[in-house]
Automatic annotation (TrEMBL):
A single Gene Ontology CC term: membrane
NCBIfam families (alphabetical): 3a0107s01c2 (TIGR00972)
Name listed for the protein in its UniProt record: Phosphate ABC transporter ATP-binding protein (PhoT family)
Ranges of residues in domain ABC transporter: 18-260
Superkingdom assignment: Bacteria
UniProt entry keywords in alphabetical sequence: ATP-binding, Nucleotide-binding, Phosphate transport, Transport
GO terms of molecular function: ATP binding; ATP hydrolysis activity; phosphate transmembrane transporter activity
UniProt-listed GO biological process terms: phosphate ion transmembrane transport
The organism of origin for this protein: Umboniibacter marinipuniceus
Keyword Signal included in the entry's annotation: no
Amino acid sequence: MSDKYVTVGSPNSADPKITADGVSVFYGDKQAIFDVSLDIGKNEVIAFIGPSGCGKSTFLRTINRMNDTIDTCRVSGKMLLEGQDIYGAKVDPVELRARVGMVFQKPNPFPKSIYENVAYGPKIHGLARNRIELDEMVESSLQKAGLWNEVKDRLHTPGIGLSGGQQQRLCIARTIAVNPEVILMDEPCSALDPIATARIEELIAELSSNYTIVVVTHSMQQAARISNRTAYFHLGKLIEVDDTNTVFTSPGHKLTEDYITGRFG
Ligand SMILES: Nc1ncnc2c1ncn2[C@@H]1O[C@H](COP(=O)(O)OP(=O)(O)OP(=O)(O)O)[C@@H](O)[C@H]1O
């Protein structure tokens, strides 16, 4: 494949929350993402799929500048959040990551209590004026993450004492606690059993009315179940993006078709 290509489908959105415009990503001399342009609409759930190493996580991490933490990593092109260039000189990455929160593959609670895991973000961002407000934020975040009833009597016990699925919901509560606009999820269910996975998928559906959600997944069934739109990446290029139903029932690109029919990847 040459470096010039056109993404098949509908990369544009009438009401974009996020706009990638010609985004490329390099690790040292190696290019991992090639000239990706994509709108992600407000309150949409978009799934990123594609074979291992195609750049899904790398592209996801450009949306909240998580790649800044990798010394060799360089991003070119524009990434806009509500029209603002997130790589602009005035943007504070810590503030950005409160607006664009992230949930990782492996649940990673802090080695603190359940309460402190959720209270941490509001505390460092100065969101609560007093303990009562902080308690309310912790409760409402745990409610939204569907965990409150399971933990309300053990808030001051360690977060790592929860089951894997509960820990992942705790991480989602921690993300929600700082009032993000966008939630990035990098294979959020890959370390979970089917029941815990189903619970996270239900939660994604519930959260989608309030947040824009971007999910990297290896599971095409999961992408089909949870997302409105699906983006197919191949060797660092965004090959196709469209309504999930269209991508899975009548893909417009041969590479997408090969992947979803199991001929590749
Ligand atoms: N920190 C890094 N330093 C150097 N190269 C990297 C780094 N992270 C990723 N890469 C490379 O960038 C390319 C894209 O990797 P990335 O992890 O984004 O793909 P992916 O589609 O998310 O893969 P997977 O599905 O296996 O998680 C790969 O060739 C990978 O080896």
